[in-house]
Design a protein that fits this description.
This protein is α+β, with helices and mostly antiparallel strands and 599 residues long. It is 29% helix and 23% strand. Helix 4 crosses helix 15, helix 10 runs antiparallel to helix 12 and helix 13 packs antiparallel against helix 14.
């Protein structure tokens, strides 16, 4: 049995220090070429690629090299040498060197590949996920995982240096309303009861503050049974932190210090802090979104005052009803089909339609041009900066409809014109979200973000008179139009927390049933506290310039929540269900997913 090491040097590290020395490398055969009786193959490991050359005078190595297939695993011994002049490959870090093989040992062979392991693979995502162990061999995927590791380590180190303690919170816990469906886990030892996988560590990190930990952090796994999209997974990771005796400014500063460390470590960028701050109401008024991409202009213009007495009742009527008249201007022409598509999108948000004006050398054209006076058209032109060849879109409705309609159009304008961003990275704290939102179907108030957020002191009295007008200490960190982190200053008073839960329709008994552990902790001297949870997957996707977070997760689920690699979720044995006192009652369409194996 051979006792020599399988490698003494990594492929990507072969350089001047190893010239003329005997080395042994190991990895996967990336590609192989026959050049007139001399075999060349690129060997790949995590560190990179190295060209190996096998000459006929090294008979055993030459014969073995001639048999190699793609993705075979081999170990090669030989001397490192410079490539002949003119054959260097400047695209490879090791492109000046090659290993002259004296011994090639096959460690494992590889079946016929379902797709090529290279950067230009056209394999469908389902196939890539089924053979994820092959997909992860691609340089891009390895780069993504490496960057994710760098981000995670930088976050941990930054928070540790800032006095945070890493504390693990339970994965099997109690279901609490946090905005999404829970994943439930039946308890065998307590028949008829269920654990819930945590949607976030929210309650436990607040309990840690009541416990005197003062500064907690964790790279926390979170689970939400919700419809999936490119930036959502049923399980995700967040950089979670909570602090005692702090204000919003303190929490923001701690997060910013962490982000500076992350960006410097991951991509070598020095961020400027403090980040910008934008009040929620201003964000909705100016950009029509609570996560605006502020690298671009195209701000929304308010025309309510100018049109409150207009003879054009579509505009004046909206203002009289307590609504607004707002506009956004696009320095581009829009076709009939483009306008129809935007109109349908506006209706889906709740608008009755979409008014617009097209600007030509002769003036304004469009369905609303006639009922507007020349003076009103001049006001619009002056406030929006309209020029021939451009288009202005209007929303005349209640603010809760007008803002998202124009926010949607703003995104469409940016996508259509593709302007250069003002900066590669734009961070902004969006602050003072509404505390509560009205649920018309259930006829009750519900939380805008989570039920544990503290109201602004100056608005707290409105809880008794106008709950919808109460602003909160809720804040989001937005990066390039992506909500990256969310957090708040919490209710540390049990009385205030109970009051807010009461407004949301929880009576005393229900409050105790669902939130008793937190309420008890607050009653025993909890300090003022607050924190944030930052999406690690979303951050890594942005840093890797990926559209989907599945590209930065080692083993993600599909958009249907399935894992083609492990074939999860799958059926279980009837004996397992009996142990849990569970009997399936599936609709006909799902009969195939019933347990296939009997105990």
């Amino acid at each position: 049995m051979s006792t020599h090491p399988l490698r003494t040097c990594n492929c990507g590290e072969a350089g001047p220090a190893f010239l003329a020395r005997e080395v042994r490398v190991a990895g996967w055969v990336h590609s192989r070429r026959d050049h007139g009786g001399v075999y060349f193959f690129d060997l790949r490991d995590r560190s990179g690629l190295l060209q190996v050359v096998a000459h006929p005078d090294q008979v055993d190595a030459f014969l073995t090299a001639g048999k190699l297939g793609a993705e075979w695993v081999v170990s090669v011994r030989g001397k490192l040498q410079r490539r002949p002049k003119g054959t260097e490959n400047p695209k490879m870090p090791t492109g000046e060197f090659e290993l002259a093989a004296e011994e090639v040992t096959v460690l494992n062979t590889c079946k016929v590949l379902p797709f090529e392991v290279d950067e230009h693979s056209t394999a469908a995502e389902e196939t890539r996920l089924k053979y994820r162990f092959l997909d992860l061999r691609r340089r891009k995927m390895l780069r993504n995982l490496t960057l994710r590791h760098t981000v995670a380590m930088a976050a941990r180190n930054a928070l540790a240096d800032d006095g945070f303690l890493e504390v693990e919170t339970p994965m099997l816990t109690k279901a609490t309303p946090e905005g999404a469906r829970d994943f439930l886990v039946p308890s065998r030892l307590n028949p008829g009861t269920f654990y819930a996988l945590p949607q976030s560590p929210q309650i436990f990190k607040q309990i840690l503050m009541a416990s005197g930990v003062e500064r907690y952090m964790q790279l926390a796994r979170a689970f939400r049974d919700e419809d999936l999209r490119a930036d959502r997974q049923p399980e995700h990771t967040q950089i979670d932190a909570e602090m005692s005796f702090v204000t919003e400014t303190d929490v923001h500063a701690a997060c910013e210090r962490m982000m500076k460390r992350i960006f410097k470590a991951a991509i070598g960028v020095d961020l400027t802090t403090p980040f910008a701050r934008l009040d929620y109401a201003d964000a909705m008024r100016r950009f029509g979104s609570d996560k605006p991409d502020q690298r671009y202009g195209f701000e929304i213009v308010d025309l309510s005052e100018a049109f409150k007495s207009s003879a054009f009742k579509v505009f004046s009527g909206a203002v009289a009803a307590g609504g607004v008249v707002r506009a956004i201007h696009a320095p581009a022409e829009y076709s009939r089909s483009e306008i129809d598509r935007l109109t349908e999108a506006a209706r889906a948000i709740g608008a009755k339609g979409l008014a617009y004006l097209k600007w030509t050398a002769a003036g304004a054209e469009g369905p609303i041009a006639k009922p507007l006076t020349p003076a009103e058209i001049e006001i619009i032109k002056s406030k929006t900066g309209a020029r021939p060849g451009s288009t202005t879109f209007f929303a005349a409705d209640k603010q809760s409809v007008a803002a998202p309609v124009l926010g949607m159009i703003r995104k469409e304008i940016i996508a259509k014109l593709k302007p250069a961003p003002s900066t590669p990275w734009h961070f902004s704290w969006i602050t003072h979200f509404p505390l509560l939102e009205w649920e018309p179907e259930e006829k009750r108030w519900t939380f805008a973000h989570n039920p544990f957020t503290r109201p602004l002191d100056e608005d707290a009295a409105k809880l008794d008179t106008d709950p919808g007008a109460v602003r909160s200490h809720q804040y989001d960190l937005v990066l390039n139009g992506v909500e990256l982190a969310s957090g708040s200053i919490r209710n540390h008073s049990g009385a205030m927390q109970r009051k807010i839960l009461g407004l949301m329709g929880f009576d005393e008994q229900e409050q105790q049933r669902q939130f008793g552990l937190l309420l008890s902790a607050l009653d025993y001297g909890a300090p003022p506290h607050g924190g944030f949870g930052l999406g690690l997957d979303r951050l890594c996707a942005l840093l890797c310039e990926e559209d989907s977070i599945r590209e930065v997760i080692a083993f993600p689920k599909t958009q249907k929540g399935t894992d083609p690699l492990s074939e999860a979720p799958g059926p279980v044995k009837e004996s397992q269900l009996r142990d849990l006192h569970i009997k399936l009652d599936l609709p006909p369409a799902h009969k195939d997913s019933a347990p296939a194996a009997k105990a």
